């Protein structure tokens, strides 16, 4: 595909791809002990059937419909069906509590829901009154079985033709922010926003020469990042979407599926790196030296340094003996891993690139579709989040805040005109992130505007930078830095598996040596892990900094004495 096609909307795109590639594999999923495939032709038939039946049970244009399911083929089928009849999908995390669902239902006004199973159906039922409740697996009494929605064997032509009439300005979906602080807000993304992201991603990733690729989908489809990339962009270029069995099976699925492209959040890379280093540390000294040599020469490649004659001789041997084994952990075919969703510590990115695995770090937020920038695969600067996508205007405000303008920008927050006016000013989306641009237009994120720590001496300190360095240490799994209004910084730390408080203290000392006096951690305390279950981690593995600090008020008070 030399040029990227244009479509009026996402549903029209999906039906068009089905006409173009009827027999091509669209998706793969694991069920009842085996992998199963879905062709584009079958996808289109089910999406059209679903659209007709949803309309028959009372779903109309403009209706908001909650979708709560793990990543599976039914997800894009349901979304395509809803978009085709101008209803509005409202993706929800499977980890949501009843209170979380109640907020989404109340805020969006959704009176219909499509969920994966009986347990999720019960949660959603407790959250609010519904007119329609569709259940994919083992539908309980009083609900609509998914099978009845997709049983129609008629050709999809009527629904596909209807989908063509939906304008790009129509509301495609209502995605709620993951809520690292405060109640999640509903982001109104029109079709044009996601289509703009897709066009920009196609141009950015062109150097990869993608064709007949395999993508392993495991990040929640309810998150804007996976929703756009795995839900629409990669299918649009013919990539087969393979739905992982869950994060707990990710390592095994990478070996089975052998993906050629993946998206990752930094936390996944941090965990894999820590495990690799821990395994290397248990090897004989000779193997440890071999690994370090492979890493050192790899880093020279990353930095564009010239290799000596002896290094050029060693390089292919080390690649076969060391680096290939690391790449095999990802299945052995991975062209690139696209990192987003949070800040990637450069040291972590450099580690994987030195071992022959390109890490394409990008940047964005739900309010921008969500992709704003990305590193070109053939010109990666791992310490940055790349350059603005094609069609994206990006500039920095006087205080360094990143401002964005273009088709990718949301229509606003659902039912929150004041918040919308405070966020989109004169057409520019105020991201709330602080950044720097180099002379080539590469963007570096330095902090969240609202997360800056101001010490009692008036110094401004970036917690994101320090937390990234701390979590890059093998002994430290999670970190939150505090100290607003205090004389110095303190840290709440969660040890990585197998590491004790002594190892953590050594890690803090290592990090402090790379920081200015103002940025150094004066005291730290070990605390319990931050998890989705205890509310201190979002479903996409972002730490809820403010909630962690509030939950550990007593601990911090002792540290600041």
Q: Please report the distance between the alpha carbons of the first and last residues.
A: 63 Å
CATH fold group of the largest domain: Rossmann fold
Overall geometry comes to globular
Which architecture name of the largest domain does CATH use? 3-Layer(aba) Sandwich
Number of strands: 27
Give the total of domains.
3
Strand content: 15-25%
Q: State the helical fraction.
A: 25-40%
Report the C-alpha radius of gyration, rounded.
24 Å
Strand order of the largest sheet: 4-3-5-6-7
Structure class: alpha/beta
- Specify the biggest β-sheet: 5 strands, parallel
Name the poorly predicted regions.
Answer: none
Mean pLDDT: 93
Descriptive account of the structure:
The protein is an alpha/beta fold. The protein folds into three domains: 10-166 and 205-260, 3-Layer(aba) Sandwich (Rossmann fold), CATH 3.40.50; 266-332 and 334-448, Rossmann fold (3-Layer(aba) Sandwich); 452-559, ANL, C-terminal domain (GMP Synthetase, Chain A, domain 3), CATH 3.30.300.30. Helix content is 38%, strand content 22%. It has 19 helices and 27 strands. β1 and β2 (34-39) form a beta hairpin. The longest helix is centred in the middle third of the chain and has 20 residues, at 309-328. The radius of gyration is 24 Å and the shape is globular.
Short key terms for the protein model shown above:
5-stranded mixed beta sheet; GMP Synthetase, Chain A, domain 3; 19 helices; alpha/beta; Rossmann fold; about 550 residues; 5-stranded parallel beta sheet
């Amino acid at each position: 595909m030399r040029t990227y096609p244009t479509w009026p909307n996402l549903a029209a795109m999906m039906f068009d791809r089905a006409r173009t590639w009827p027999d091509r594999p669209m998706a793969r999923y694991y069920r009842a002990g085996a992998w199963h495939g879905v062709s584009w032709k079958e996808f289109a038939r089910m999406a059209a059937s679903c659209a007709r039946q949803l309309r028959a049970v009372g779903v109309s244009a403009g209706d908001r419909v909650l979708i709560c399911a793990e990543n599976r083929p039914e997800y894009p089928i349901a979304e395509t069906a809803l978009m085709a009849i101008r209803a509005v999908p409202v993706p929800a995390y499977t980890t949501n509590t009843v209170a979380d669902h109640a907020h989404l239902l109340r805020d969006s006004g959704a009176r219909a829901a499509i969920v994966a199973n009986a347990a999720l159906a019960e949660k959603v039922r407790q959250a609010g009154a519904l007119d329609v409740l569709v259940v994919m697996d083992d539908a309980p009494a009083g609900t609509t079985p998914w099978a009845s929605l997709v049983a129609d064997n008629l050709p999809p032509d009527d629904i596909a033709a209807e989908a063509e009439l939906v304008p790009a300005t129509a509301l495609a979906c209502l995605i709620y922010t993951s809520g690292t602080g405060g109640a999640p807000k509903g982001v109104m993304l029109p079709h044009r926003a996601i289509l703009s992201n897709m066009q920009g991603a196609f141009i950015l990733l062109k150097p990869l020469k993608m064709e007949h690729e395999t993508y392993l989908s495991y990040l929640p489809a309810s998150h804007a990042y996976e929703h756009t990339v795995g839900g629409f962009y990669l299918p649009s270029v013919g990539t087969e979407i393979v739905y992982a069995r869950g994060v707990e099976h990710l390592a095994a699925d990478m070996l089975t599926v052998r993906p050629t492209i993946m998206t990752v959040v930094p936390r996944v890379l941090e965990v894999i790196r820590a495990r690799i280093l821990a395994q290397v540390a248990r090897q004989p000294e000779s193997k440890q030296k071999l690994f370090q040599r492979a890493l050192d020469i790899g880093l020279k490649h990353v930095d564009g340094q010239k290799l000596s004659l002896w290094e050029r001789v060693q390089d292919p041997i080390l690649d076969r003996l060391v680096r290939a084994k690391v790449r095999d952990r990802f299945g052995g075919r991975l062209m690139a891993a696209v990192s987003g969703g949070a800040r990637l510590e450069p040291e972590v990115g450099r580690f994987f690139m030195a071992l022959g695995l390109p890490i394409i770090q990008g940047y964005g937020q739900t309010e921008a579709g969500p992709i704003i920038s990305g590193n070109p695969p053939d010109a990666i600067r791992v310490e940055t989040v790349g350059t603005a996508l094609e069609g994206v205007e990006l500039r920095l405000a006087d205080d360094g805040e990143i401002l964005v303008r273009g088709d990718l920008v949301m229509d606003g927050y659902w039912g929150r005109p004041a918040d919308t006016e405070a966020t989109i000013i004169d057409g520019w989306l105020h991201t709330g992130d602080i950044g720097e641009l180099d002379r080539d237009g590469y963007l570096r994120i330095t902090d969240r505007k609202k997360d800056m720590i101001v010490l009692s001496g008036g110094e401004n300190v970036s917690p994101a930078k320090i937390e990234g360095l701390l979590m890059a240490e093998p002994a430290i799994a999670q970190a939150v830095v505090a100290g607003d209004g205090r004389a110095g910084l303190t840290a709440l730390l969660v040890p990585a598996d197998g590491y004790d408080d002594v190892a953590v203290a050594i890690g803090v000392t290592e990090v402090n040596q790379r920081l200015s006096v103002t940025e150094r951690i004066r005291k730290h305390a070990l605390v319990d892990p931050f998890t989705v279950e205890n509310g201190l981690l979002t479903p996409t593995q972002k730490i809820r900094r403010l909630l962690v600090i509030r939950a550990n008020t007593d601990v911090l008070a002792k540290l600041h004495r």
